[in-house]
Structure formats: C-alpha cells, structure tokens
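Support request, please re-run this one:
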Amino acid sequence: MKLVNHHVLITGGTTGIGFGLAQKLVDLGNEVLVVDYSQENIDHAKKELPALKTFKADLSDDSERQRLADWVQVNYSQLDVLINNAGIQRWINLLNGNNRQSWDWYRQEFAINFEAPLHLTMLLLPLITSHKDSAIINVSSGLVITVGAWVPIYTASKNAVHGFTQSLRLQLDHTDTAVFEILPPAVNTNLGGSGEHTYGTDLNEFVSAVIEQLGNDLPEITYDTSWTQLRATKQENQEMTEKVWEMFKENPNFKNA
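Re-run finished. Output below.
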C-alpha cells in the first residue's frame, strides 16, 4: 500500500492509537479527517496537528453515523481510506450485572466498538471502492486471540470486528480496495479512562510498526505480544489466556466493576 496522497478518515482519531496514526499519515503526505465525540479532544488534537480536518460525532448513535457519512459525501468525497479505530474498554464483572449500570451503558460499548465500524463501512463503501488503491482498516485487539475475561463486552465486540473484517476482505477481493485488520497488544494509552491503561507497548513504536506493515501489505497487523499470539498454537494461547485471567480475577477494581 502506498501511504501517500490519500484522503483518510480516522474514527477516534484525536487520542491514543488514532492520533498516533493521524500524525504519521499527515507526515507522510496524506490528508486526514479525525472524528471524535469530545470537543475538548478535537481542540487539543487540532492544536497539536493543525493540518487535521475534524468532525464531532457520537458514533454510538446511528443517526450521528449517518450525519457523518452525509457530510463526507459532500465535503470529503475523495475519501479513500477508512480507519475504524474508535473504541472504549470497560472492566465489567458480569456477576454484578444490572446492579451497577443501565443497559444503555453496557450497549454503548458494543455500539462504539462494533456497530460503528460495521455501519460506517456499509455507508461509505460505495465511495471508498470507487477510488483506486483504497483501503478499509479495522482496529480489533490482541484479545481476539487471547480472551480478556475482565473486559467481556470489549472482547466480544472486537471478536465481532475480527469476523466482519475477514468477511469484508473476501467480499472485496475483486476490487481495488484492500482490507486490513490491526490487532494491537496492550498499548500505553488512556484506553479505559485516564490512568487506567498506563502499561504496555510504547505508542510511537507501535504506530511505526503499523505503518511499516501497511506498507508491506500485511493483512493482519500485529506487534509485540499480539505478533507472538497470532503465531502461537491454540494451546499456547489458551494457557496465556488463563495465566492473564489469574492476574485480573482477584483485582479489587475488577471485583467491584
């Protein structure tokens, strides 16, 4: 994939992995539109990277996704790369159930993580496939390979993204649109909330690896632990799943989640 002269849309593109990708792609000579629900995040990203185009939308809402797609058709019709990156991750102890939150609170996580990339892809697919050397890039998770039991809705939604991406790749194999899946390891970002995810792979290292693998046309993009997991046996990954779960299940934050 030639990573220059594209018109890119990145959901969740003002922070974390999304913003890291936006920075790299702008530096390489691409035009980038980032979408976020938070005006504060948008303002901060724009200050850091003035070349960004921005759009405010809550992607958990289907009408907001339609509004974004309508705007793109009129104002950003050269769009040829969609990066479905927006996501939220919540620790949820299922035994606590509805004693904690309303169903809408639980549904929101699945809506942002899976419904949004599915819906946006369907809305924008005719536009994207009309351009040569175009691409759809979906961000799932290394937890597709080794289950994250402490984040059950996140894990389920990212498995849905994984399955959808595989189906999409087959359906588009006769077009000029490539389909990639990014399966991040734990990356040191604020996923899950400020201060809740301050461990894992360095963000800049990870983003650089993603750009390199996109340039080499690797359909499944991994790094660090997710690179190892993708190439491990089913038994090895099951053992790792159980080992990590042992670390989380007695954590007081999880027990009270």
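The mean pLDDT is 94. The CA atoms of residues 12 and 86 lie 4 Å apart.
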